[in-house]
Specification:
CATH superfamily of the largest domain: Ribonuclease H-like superfamily/Ribonuclease H
CATH class of the largest domain: Alpha Beta
Number of helices: 8
CATH architecture of the largest domain: 2-Layer Sandwich
Number of strands: 12
Helix content: 25-40%
Largest sheet: 5 strands, mixed
Number of domains: 3
Radius of gyration: 25 Å
Order of helices and strands: HHHEEEHEHEHHHEEEEEEE
Distance between the termini: 75 Å
Strand order of the largest sheet: 3-2-1-4-5
Strand content: 15-25%
Structural class: alpha/beta
Length: 326
């Protein structure tokens, strides 16, 4: 009971299996999981959850090699300084699927696509480029399910994956268990953060705590899903790493957009998460057009006559795409 209280007070898991591991490795006592569970139940320390879905009903999957799949998600956490951070902040996670190794943790005021892309590149610089990623359908990760006027293109993160030949996988809508590993990791992380005596007031203070937790999680905390309850760092550092697959250059992004030339003689097309303005000419004001896009190559056709009004390659460094580049 004393060991359970110590683990709980530090924000760590304190179930029968975890207690058994600590008793064996730190106290030289080997006690079965069932015996520990029986004592915890008798002491009233276990809350029965008869309506909870049994684990056997889930289809379990995991990558077979490190860096085969990286999962990512972000979560909210409040700060003590509610004047400067009235809505708290957000923490983004990159978690390796096979070994549960925490690749990256960082705190930000708000998670954006640029932050997702930057943190992914930072993690890749430290640990190598993964073969695939797995996330939910948040707009910072993908625009494939975006609303009218935004769907069909790639945001900056999706374009980065395509450039590095990384396969992008997304969960089905309303199926959070697909990304269950990173969801469970965030629960463990927030439990640990809440157990700390000095709660952070700034982003810098929270980042210090996140760095401590990441080190402890990767190198000292036993993980029940790994063989012999190893720490995530052990298999991640020992096993060979997966690499990105064949080139995705042939995986072009083809789409069709219907638009109408506005009074300034332009139409819009979202490319790499940003809205680009394509100059067509004021003489075509009000003309209904069809945009045929294949990655950065675009053809603008009169929807009624079929006349080719413009053909261009998008310059991603500019918003406005003039008819006659300067």
């Amino acid at each position: 009971m004393r060991l359970r209280k110590e683990l709980t007070d530090t924000g760590l898991d304190a179930g029968p299996e975890t207690i058994a591991w600590h008793l064996e490795h730190h106290h030289r006592h080997r006690v079965s999981r069932s015996t520990i569970s029986r004592h915890l139940t008798a002491a009233g320390l276990v809350t029965p959850e008869p309506k909870k879905r049994p684990k056997s009903s889930y289809i379990r999957f995991e990558a077979s090699m490190p860096n085969e799949t990286w999962q990512s998600d972000f979560t909210h956490y409040p700060l003590d300084d509610t004047t400067r951070f009235p809505k708290g902040i957000e923490i983004i996670t990159w978690l390796e699927d096979c070994t549960r190794y925490a690749l990256h943790l960082s705190a930000h005021r708000t998670i954006t696509t640029e932050i997702v892309k930057a943190t992914f590149k930072e993690a890749a610089a430290q640990h190598g480029i993964p073969a695939s990623t797995l996330t939910d359908n948040g707009m910072v990760y993908t625009v494939r399910l975006a609303g009218i006027g935004r769907q069909g293109g790639r945001n900056g993160f999706e374009q980065q994956l395509h450039h590095w030949h990384v396969v992008q996988k997304n969960s089905r809508p309303n199926h959070p268990t697909t990304c269950g590993k990173v969801e469970r990791f965030q629960q463990t992380m927030k439990n640990w953060l809440r157990a700390q005596r000095d709660q952070p007031s700034t982003l810098a203070e929270l980042q210090i705590l996140l760095n401590r937790f990441r080190t402890e999680y990767n190198t000292t905390r036993p993980h029940r899903s790994l063989p012999h309850r190893a720490t995530p760092a052990t298999p991640y550092n020992q096993m060979p790493k997966a690499l990105p697959g064949p080139s995705r250059d042939a995986d072009t992004h083809d789409r069709i957009r219907h638009d109408r030339v506005d009074k300034s003689g332009t139409v819009t097309l979202r490319v790499h998460g940003q809205l680009r303005h394509l100059g067509i000419g004021r003489t075509h004001k009000g003309t209904h057009v069809i945009l045929l896009a294949q990655d950065l190559n675009v053809r603008v056709v009169n929807a009624i006559t079929g006349e080719l009004l413009r053909e261009l390659t998008i310059d991603t460094s500019k918003d406005y795409q003039p008819r006659t580049p300067k």
